[in-house]
Amino acid sequence: MNPLRQLREAGQSVWLDYLRRGLIAGGGLQELIDEDGVGGVTSNPSIFRKAIGGSTDYEAAIAALAGNGTNARDAFYRLALEDIRSACDVFLPTWEETEGLHGFVSFELEPGLARDTKGSIVAAADLAARIDRPNVMIKVPGTEEGVPVVEELTAAGLNVNITLLFSVDRHEEVARAYVAGLRRGLEAGQQIEGIASVASFFVSRVDSKVDARLPDDSPLRGRIAIANAKMAYRRFQEIFSGEEWEELAAAGGRVQRPLWASTSTKDPELRDVLYVESLVGPQTVNTMPQATMDAFRDHGRVDPAAVSDGLDEAEDALARLEEAGVSLESVTSDLVEEGIAAFAADFEALLETIEGTLARSRAGESQRGSSLGALDGPVRARLDALQERSIVRRIWRKDHTVWKDDPTEIVDRLGWLTVADRMHERIEELEAFAKESVADGFETAVLLGMGGSSLAPEMLMRTFGATGDRLELVVLDTTHPVAIARIETELDLARTLFLVASKSGATVETLSHLDHFWERTRGAAERFVAITDPGTPLAELARERGFRKVWINPEDIGGRYSALSLFGLVPGALIGAPLRELLDGAEEMGIACDACIESKDNPAGWLGAVLGDASLSGRDKLTLVLPEEIASLGSWVEQLIAESTGKEGTGIVPVVGEDLGAPDVYGRDRLFVAYGDHEGLEAIEAAGHPVVRLPYDGPTSLGRELFRWEFATAVAGHVLGINPFDQPNVAEAKQATAEILESGIEEPGLDDLPPLLEQVRPGDYLSLHAYLDPTDETAAVLHRARMALRDRYAVATTVGFGPRFLHSTGQLHKGGPATGVFIQVVDPDRPRDVEIPGKPYSFGRLIDAQALGDLRSLRGRGRRVARVTLEQLLGGVA
Q1: What pLDDT, on the 0 to 100 scale, is given for residue 59?
Q2: Residue 37: how many CB atoms within 10 A of its CB?
Q3: What single string gives the DSSP state of each residue in 308-350?
Q4: How, if at all, do strands 472-476 and 496-502 pair?
Q5: pLDDT at position 747, please?
Q6: Which of 404, 458, 708, 800 could cross-link with 475 by S-S, CB 3.0 to 4.6 Å?
Q7: How far, in Å, CA of 413 to CA of 383, rounded?
Q8: Which three-class secondary structure state does DSSP give residue 567?
Q9: Cα(41)–Cα(28) distance, rounded to whole angstroms?
Q10: Residues 411 and 398: beta-carbon distance below 8 Å
Q11: Sign of dihedral through CA atoms 674, 677, 679, 682?
Q12: Which run of H or E residues covers position 798?
């Protein structure tokens, strides 16, 4: 049986913490009622803002309001109240069938009223009258000033949802205010049997706040929020029992049900449905975001008495928390203030979004559209097929059969869909860590990582730089000994924080970097930070050595999809990147790509269909055209696309960093994707090349674009019939490297370049693999060489520094189509080498083995490849 329906049988009503027009109009809300027994919904300004800013839900309505001269606040109420009424109408049959037990829709008072008792009473009555539905609840903040509001509204016969409750004492105050309101109504001769109320008691935020004040190894971590909620439930049972309550109950009074809010799990080391499973009980409500609802439907377990079990253990945990020097009273007080402030900020941001949308509508602004040419028909047909097969909905529900029948490396790789929401709860902790690092004298952070662990931090650093007094970030994702030695000579290691980042915790390059700098700092553990998955060798080693901090990332996210997780956000916090804006943007795009949106209106679904069908039609060279200020986004997209799609003999070849040329230097295998307008793009478009134009709103929109590309890649993987989350060929070069290091390096010699270049054919791509010191000067030389090759042979060109690209495009080179022509560029000699402590080989021998291992792997697959020096390369393109 559906576990969500089992919750209803156990006496708990399931409410959705999400509401938007598309969900109502598209039938998604009714579907949740029919399939899952969802018994209510709550709205909030953050979701509403992101739906307006990122989707087409409200375009027509806002255009009409813009023409009428409506201001932002009035527009909000016109739009939002229409949604609330529509949702109430959808739930009305449920409300009637259950005699008012289920079927409620909640709407919040403005945050400016949180401390205004009289204003709240007047505003709530006005809203209830304007909505004019029997199953609406008005949400009132659980502040000291909000307590008398509960009594007054209840006495007036209104349904009330008291929100932002964190402490058991305040929960009791609002419960007793509700009881007092019922009694006043009864004494005034009114009917009280139709009045309903819930007390929204927040859960996971308590753990987020408490755990930040506890040691990493404290047994109390992840336990306090549930213990606190269990105490609130026990108090609820005491209040709604006994002679006084029985008198009200006999007159039709209903209990004020505890509503468990904030029930998504933020800590990756805890079960993702922990806060749902632990708080099941009669006469309760659990309001969940869609992701938690999907997870519980998939693998939730229902114990009907869970909320009442373990009360002694809960009391003990709370007592031990006080003994540990953490005041729960202080925590809950802070959470109320932060909640009000966050609500106010969300509401102001909502009004700003509406104002901007109204202004754009009045100005008649529009973006230049995409031009797909011959791809237009296939893409339209593909979007129809995606809609018919519910592909987007199935992606959100983490249905592995979208890609393959085998769930391996799919079901445990879809956490990127909702990681932005989870990471919002970590912003305070991340920023506190950054400020502490600055206060302790650190000036630079060096990231030791490869591929997915390095590209997102590098992108953030190149895009935003180090702001204010935050740290400079240096990304070390090479084994070239000269580059490693440069870190030591250019930086003050005593003021350098080393971020050791590896999803597996076993990446050979990263662990070699760690060994080297651990020795150079003489084991100064306070200068080292680990970012890794739960239970990895790196996590264990970091804790054994007493690293300054061990950040544990959600394990259900692959490396190349991890930009918006701790792998990107920890270094992002250290440089002062705008974390909140990045995560908000990602959530906004996620809402725009929601399952309730038709595929043709889904911005990332549409892009994925274009990428996939372009590749199937022979236009598999995805050429990115980017504004200079976000040029580093290209390297991140390159890894995402290449490693995700380059397998089973198919794949999309991302082309990043090429200068725009004349139309005649491009073959008929190109698809252009551009942000904004660029000189020369119109001529390319006029020549018949398909051009996708994406809106560009500045660097702070980067989070939105990261999610767009992740979702588009997932859809493109479906179109191509491959698993976009595995990397089956990456291990080849690693194994070859290990064998070479063990048996010894045999110099294979160098090749002549012209015979290789004679093999270049239309539809191929030329790829430079530079096992060189990755300096800006060398990159500039390689760029000139690729441009000369592009113009001479009219084929796509790519460049990658080794061994970095082995963790990026290496999968495509070996598992993708056999259209690559590879030029490996190596050092003829080096000025110095650097030893790796505890290893029988140096960094110089390691990079040589990696180059030779890659060469063997490519040749073993019959790829066209030559090994040359930089001097030979330049001579060959002169």
Answers
A1: 84
A2: 18
A3: GTTHHHHHHHHHHHHHTT--HHHHHHHHHHHHHHHHHHHHHHH
A4: unpaired
A5: 75
A6: 458
A7: 24
A8: helix
A9: 12
A10: yes
A11: positive
A12: strand 796-801
Token pair 């201001």 in the structure block, residue: 71
DSSP letter at 255 equals P
As a whole number of angstroms, the distance between CA 178 and CA 197 comes to 8
Residue 475: C-alpha distances to residues 32, 438, 783 (Å): 46, 18, 21
Pairwise CA distance, residues 702 & 563, whole Å? 11
For 694, the enclosing helix (H) or strand (E) is: strand 691-694
> Using the 8-state DSSP alphabet, how is residue 357 labeled?
H
Q: What is the pLDDT of residue 368?
A: 59
Contacts 24+ apart (CB under 8 A), 552-555: 552/268, 552/269, 553/268, 553/503, 554/268, 554/415, 554/419, 554/422, 555/268, 555/412, 555/415
- The amino acid at residue 703 is G
For the range 123-126, what are the long-range contacts, defined as Cβ-Cβ under 8 Å and sequence gap of 24 or more?
Answer: 124/149, 124/153, 124/158, 124/160, 125/153, 125/156, 125/158
The C-alpha atoms of residue 12 and residue 31 are separated, in whole angstroms, by 19
CB-based contacts of 302: which residues, under 8 Å, 6+ apart?
Answer: 3, 6, 7, 10, 277, 280
The helix (H) or strand (E) run that includes residue 693 is strand 691-694
Please determine, for residue 443, whether its predicted confidence score (pLDDT) is greater than 60. yes
Alpha-carbon gap, residue 349 to 340, rounded angstroms:
14
SS3 496: strand
Comparing C-alpha atoms, which of 652, 655, 650 is closest to residue 635?
A: 655
Helices 117-131 and 146-155 cross at an angle (nearest 10°) of: 40
Whether 647 is catalytic is no
Give the list of residues 6+ apart from residue 174 with CB closer than 8 angstroms, or none: 142, 146, 147, 150, 162, 165, 199, 256
Q: How far apart are CA 478 and CA 482, in angstroms?
A: 10
Tokens of 460: 């953030």
Q: What percent of the chain has pLDDT over 90?
A: 89
CA end-to-end distance (rounded Å), the chain: 70
**Among candidate residues 536, 716, 591, 426, the one with its CA nearest the CA of residue 46:** 591
- Residue 860 near residue 815, CB atoms below 8 Å: no
| pLDDT digit string, tens, across residues 845-877 | 999 999 999 999 999 999 999 999 999 999 998
Structure tokens at 536: 């990895």
- Residue 68: which pLDDT band, with cuts at 50, 70 and 90? confident
Neighbours of 243 (CB within 10 A): 6
- The residue assigned the tokens 């702070």 is 700
The Cα 672–Cα 690 span in angstroms is 6
Q: Which two tokens stand for residue 57?
A: 């839900």
Residues 6 or more apart whose Cβ sits within 8 Å of residue 666: 623, 684, 687, 689, 794
Q: At what angle do helices 633-645 and 702-720 cross, to 10 degrees?
A: 20
What are the structure tokens assigned to 560, written together? 């190349």
Whole-angstrom Cα Rg for the chain: 29
With CA atoms as reference, report the closest residue to 275 among 142, 170, 425: 425
| Residue 367 pLDDT exceeds 60 | no
Buried b (16+ CB within 10 A) or exposed e, 824-846: bbbbeebeeebebeebebbbbbb
How many whole angstroms separate alpha carbon 470 and alpha carbon 438?
6
pLDDT at residue 828 tops 80:
yes
In the structure encoding, which two tokens stand for residue 426, read together? 């970590």
**What is the value of pTM for the model shown?**
0.93
Which of the residues 50, 118, 139, 621 is marked catalytic? 139
Ramachandran category for residue 417: left, alpha or beta (phi over 0 → left; psi -120 to 50 → alpha): alpha
Give the alpha-carbon dihedral of 857, 862, 864, 866, to 10 degrees.
40
